[in-house]
Every structure is written in C-alpha cells, then in structure tokens.
Amino acid sequence: METTHRPAPADPGRTAAWSDRLRAAGRRVTRQRLAVLEAVDAHPHSTAEDVAAAVRTALPTITVQSVYVVLSDLTALGMLRKFEPPASPALYETRTDDNHHHAYCVRCGAVTDIDCAVGHAPCLTPVEHHGMHLLSADVVYHGVCADCLAADGARPAAASAG
Fold it and tell me: Where would you say this protein principally sits, based on its record (predicted)?
C-alpha cells in the first residue's frame, strides 16, 4: 500500500513538547527526529517506508536506514508506539498516552484506533500476572472495514457473543 504524504504544518506547541521530551530523555533535538515525529503524527499507522517518504519532503537526503534508527529510538523512548498487524509491516503512531487497541481490516489492511473498554473487562484481566506489574494490554480486532463491505455490497453482521 503506497501512499504519498505531505507534511502538515508544524504545530509550535507540539514541537516544543516533543523537544522537551527529547531533552528530558537525554537526546538532542534534531531536524530528523522532529520530522519523523511530524510525519507519524500527521499520518498515524504509517509504515517506516511511508514515514521515510513523508520525511523526504522536508529532508530530501535522509536515508530509509536513518528513518528506521529514529523510529526505533523514539519507540524506545515511548514517544512513538509500534504496532504490528498480522502479516503486515510494522506501523507507527504518536498516540502513546493511553491503552488503546486497534481494529485491522483483513482485506485492505486499514487500521483504526479503538478506545480501551471502560469499566471491568474480564478478558483484559489475566488469571495470572506471573509477578509482573502489567502496564497495558494489546488487543487486535480482526474484521472487514466498512469500505470493503460496501465494495462487496455486504452489510456488517452483528458481533456474536464470544
């Protein structure tokens, strides 16, 4: 799935917050890091290749390898979240401040954020935590998106109790 991304105008407040977080983590604030953050923020659920294409509109000489290094570093810092849908390349997003999940279309690969269940969700409470302090749960909903259903002339079926 190839897409062309144009960078959105930088939000000075958002850029300042990212710069503060980078400095607090002991990292230099570089054009490359900020360009990657801006590209991912403008186009959530982008692959590394899509991020590289978007960053190249602002920094034409950046290599894909450099983008991968920045993505890895920003993910390790918790400034990006890496999501790996089944049988697809990893996707990146800047939404890291909550425990949300994803719905993945098994036909076209579209990904949508799904807010975490509110209240008690027994399937998200493990029987045993094995001594770990659990921070989040990753849930991937597999389905067929509305666009694919419409293309087939089908209607979405009600979810069955499981």
Answer: cytoplasm
Burial class (CB in 10 A: 0-12, 13-18, 19+), 49: middle
Residues 6+ away with beta carbon under 8 Å from 69 = none
pLDDT, tens only, 88-119? 899 999 999 887 889 999 999 899 999 877 76
Which positions make up the binding site for Zn(2+)? 105, 108, 145, 148
Which positions make up the binding site?
105, 108, 145, 148
| pLDDT for 126 | 80
- 3-class state of residue 109 by DSSP: coil
Domains of the chain are 12-83 (1.10.10.10), 98-152 (3.30.1490.190)
